[in-house]
Design brief:
Length: 156
């Protein structure tokens, strides 16, 4: 796991890229009636915009809030590191999903004013289970593995 600001920045870049791309693909697939080949290319139209927003939010705000909330609830020295990682991931997804769904509603879906709240809630309700499960079971372990390859700790 990241030990310096630079490492935290690299970790965030990798995690945000993976999560944003998968979630954009997921939402396009949902709204187009299923997963089709075009979804993977279509996702790049929204990817960069959403990636920058997600990366900045997570690195400068949500990540810090998540760490504070988790460390208030559990002592990281008394818990296995995987429990701490999962707790932080759950809090981050719990904050990022509503925020990113809100942003997608404004800039991508662009519903009529009268439909804004229900469109946002629908995006959030559809996206949250996928975001949480993908984060805990796939993205988190994959990014931690890649991160460990990039920043190998020296044997003590």
């Amino acid at each position: 796991m990241p030990k310096t600001k630079f490492q935290d920045f690299i970790y965030t870049i990798i995690m945000a890229a993976l999560m944003v791309y998968v979630m954009v693909c997921y939402n396009i697939a949902i709204h187009s009636g299923g997963l089709h080949n075009f979804v993977f290319l279509e996702a790049f139209k929204e990817f960069f915009f959403m990636y920058v927003i997600a990366g900045v939010l997570e690195f400068f705000l949500i990540g810090k809030i998540a760490h504070k909330l988790v460390f208030k609830a559990i002592n990281p020295k008394e818990q296995p590191s995987i429990i701490v990682s999962y707790a932080i991931s759950i809090v981050i997804v719990s904050f990022m999903c509503p925020i990113m769904s809100f942003i997608a509603t404004i800039f991508i879906s662009k519903p009529e004013i009268s439909q804004f709240v229900v469109t946002w809630l629908q995006f959030m309700v559809i996206s949250f289970p996928m975001a949480l499960c993908f984060q805990l079971f796939y993205a988190g372990p994959l990014v931690r593995f890649l991160f460990s390859l990039l920043f190998r700790e020296k044997a003590k």
